[in-house]
Design goal:
The protein is 35% helix and 21% strand. The chain is α/β, with parallel strands linked by helices. It has a single domain, classed as Hypothetical Protein Ychn, Chain: A (3-Layer(aba) Sandwich), CATH 3.40.1260.
Length: 117
């Protein structure tokens, strides 16, 4: 099965990104054969940045992203959204790829399920 998670919110401030990644990790644990994809839009492009430092005991989006990537998940982010936020030269988490609307469309049409956060 192919599942696409679309995340629109910033990594911190709301728990939408956290909950999407939490569910992604659980799916990969329960069904490792799942082809799991995450596409980051709008303020969610900040989820892909390296060197996130969070207070002790607080969730860390970068660590969660690395876990998904290490289990075979794919993560891409919208280049236009990054440009609009002045993040053209991002210091991305290793394995995260810059993408575009055409690839987002392709992933959406090719997925069995699409979940939007």
């Amino acid at each position: 099965m192919k599942i696409l998670f679309v995340i629109n919110d910033a990594p911190y401030g709301t728990e939408k990104a956290y909950n999407a990644l939490r569910l992604s990790l659980q799916i990969l644990k329960d069904k490792p054969e799942t082809e799991l994809r995450i596409f980051l839009l709008a303020d969610a492009v900040n989820c892909a940045l390296k060197n996130q430092i969070t207070p002790q005991g607080y969730y860390n989006i970068e660590r969660m992203m690395r876990g998904i990537l290490s289990k075979g998940g794919k993560v891409k982010l919208c280049g236009t959204c990054s440009d609009a936020r002045g993040l053209k030269e991002l210091n991305l988490i290793e394995g995260v790829q810059m993408s575009n609307l055409a690839e987002f469309s392709e992933w959406t049409l090719d997925s069995d399920k699409v979940l939007i956060f």
